[in-house]
Amino acid sequence: MTSPVQTLDELVLPLVTAAGLELWDVEVNPRMVRILVDRPGGIDLESLTDIARAVSAALDEREDLAPSSNYELEVSSPGVERTLRTAGHFSRYIGETIAVKTKVAVAGSRRLQGVLLAADGAGITIRLDGASTQVSYDQVQKAHTVLVWGPSAPKGRPTKGSPTKGRPMMEEAR
Question: Could you tell me where the beta strands, DSSP code E, fall in 12-153?
Answer without folding.
Answer: 22-29, 32-38, 72-76, 97-106, 109-119, 123-128, 131-136, 140-145
